[in-house]
Amino acid sequence: MPHRELWPIALTIAGSDSGGGAGIQADLKTFAALRVHGTSAITCITAQNPREVRAVQAVRPSILRAQLEAVCAELPPRAVKTGMLYSASLIRQVARFRFPEAPPLVVDPVMVATSGAPLLHPRALRALVRLLLPRAALITPNIPEAELLLQAPLRSVDDLRAGARTLHRRFGCAVLLKGGHLRGVSQAVDLYYDGRTELLLLAPRVRNLHTHGTGCTYAAAITAHLARGLTLPRAVAAAKQFITRALARSYRAAHHDVLRVAL
């Protein structure tokens, strides 16, 4: 019998993007590109394309829990990532669930779509902050999300450094503060801090590119590298290289830019 390669397992808990550029679809493509078997628990069905989110329908909390139980019964993940959770009841289900062997949890605190559509119910923010972020091994907010969590503006690299340290103190987890929205900076700057290690992650900024799903793909790449056994700082650094390459090699679908996640 021929030798079969054993792939580690990762789980994404997120919404479905009918346009294929973000959410569950982006996560599973990223897992596969990094030779990780992707499993999923869908939180929401969205009717969207790269231009707009037209409708959102959340699943029942009992269905989300049933998905998590089914996956973990036969395919226990070595790393878990959350994306769009949308409601307080869904956040509570994830926060209360006990995964086998306590895999690291990467929380991408998805709040607003690239198009501006809200992806987190206003009443859900409190549940996210109180129940889920303290359970995370890593949170990956972009600047608008971090500003909402911090209730303070972030306008410079020094602000990113201070913001990451504040979030680490508040939630007790590592923080990757993504600086893609930072104005007046020639490079794409992200700041990682875990209480001991600080990484300033720099990459050339890709001009005239309009994609969505970059944050999903970035967090999924970190999760995949964790599933493959990398330490958290090394997983973040490797994922930064992965997302930079995906942006630089993006392709066109109709008249939209799409990340190329294949290696």
Describe this entry's structure for a reader.
By secondary structure, this protein is an alpha/beta fold. It has a single domain (10-250), classed as Ribokinase (UDP-N-acetylmuramoyl-L-alanine:D-glutamate ligase), CATH 3.40.1190. It has eight helices and eleven strands. The chain has helices at 23-33, 61-74, 88-96, 124-132, 143-150, 157-171, 214-227, 232-248; strands at 9-17, 37-48, 53-58, 79-82, 105-107, 138-139, 174-178, 187-193, 198-204, 251-253, 256-258. Strand 7 (174-178) and strand 8 (187-193) form a beta hairpin. It is globular and about 50 Å long. The two termini are 28 Å apart.
Quick tags:
alpha/beta; 37% helix; globular; nine-stranded mixed sheet; 8 helices; two-stranded antiparallel sheet; 263 residues; UDP-N-acetylmuramoyl-L-alanine:D-glutamate ligase
Strand line-up of the largest beta sheet: 3-2-1-4-5-6-7-8-9
Shape: globular
Poorly predicted spans: none
Termini distance? 28 Å
| N-to-C SSE string, H for helix and E for strand | EHEEHEHEHEHHEEEHHEE
CATH architecture: 3-Layer(aba) Sandwich
Mean pLDDT: 92
Beta percentage is 15-25%
Class based on secondary structure composition and strand pairing: alpha/beta
